């Protein structure tokens, strides 16, 4: 519903003070294109395009000028460490690089809200840490709100606020701790209390 791909049956949803579900089809498409960004577990990059072409898609759809696209792309490529890979296709880069490109595509038009669906689910431990640190830095630098769905306690420990859902209801809520190790432990304890066990929680620990 937040992504505006499903309709409300009750209640209200506000994004930037607006109720997107009340917009018509064209207005809603423009709203999503302007205010939202998306990062998926499977990356969803287009294999027929280069990394650079994938990243500027939101600007292309918004009819941005070539100059604006070139400036924003150069800045984002540099920030993501992808400048030397911009000409490559998706099958020529690693999973971590592909996810960074997907993050760049989601943020290049400076949306108010970025929705991340298990963004580290296909990454190894090093790439996971790199992507989570990158999202944290970009959130702080750009002032963009990031809403992430994850089953991974490590990924959740990078968040400022966590809502635990069980059977369609909010089960618990946690706010960021100054010590991420302690925050991870809190998250793990809630997951176990929700019906899991020690084997369901990642063995990763933080120093």
> How many beta-strand runs?
5
Named CATH topology of the largest domain = Rossmann fold
CATH architecture descriptor text of the largest domain: 3-Layer(aba) Sandwich
CATH class of the largest domain: Alpha Beta
Helix content: 40-55%
- By DSSP (H or I, 4+ residues per run), the number of helices equals 8
Beta-strand portion reads 5-15%
Average pLDDT metric: 89
Backbone CA Rg: 18 Å
- N-to-C SSE series? HEHHHHEHEHEEH
Question: Could you say which overall geometry the principal axes of the C-alpha atoms support?
Answer: globular
Which structural class fits the helix and strand makeup?
alpha/beta
Overall tally of structural domains:
2
**Could you name the ranges where pLDDT drops below 50 across 5 or more consecutive residues?**
203-207
Biggest sheet: strand arrangement = 1-2-3
Largest sheet: 3 strands, parallel
CATH superfamily of the largest domain: P-loop containing nucleotide triphosphate hydrolases
Distance between the termini: 37 Å
Give a structural overview.
α5 packs parallel to α6 (125-142). It contains 8 helices and 5 strands; from the N terminus they run αβααααβαβαββα. The longest helix is centred in the middle third of the chain and has 18 residues, at 125-142. The model is unreliable at 203-207 (pLDDT under 50). It has helices at 25-35, 51-55, 57-61, 66-80, 95-107, 125-142, 153-156, 180-193, and strands at 36-40, 113-117, 145-149, 161-166, 169-175. The strands form 2 sheets. A 3-stranded parallel beta sheet has the order 1-2-3. Strands 4-5 form a two-stranded antiparallel ribbon. It has 207 residues and is an alpha/beta fold. It has 2 domains: 38-150, P-loop containing nucleotide triphosphate hydrolases (Rossmann fold), CATH 3.40.50.300; 153-194, no CATH class.
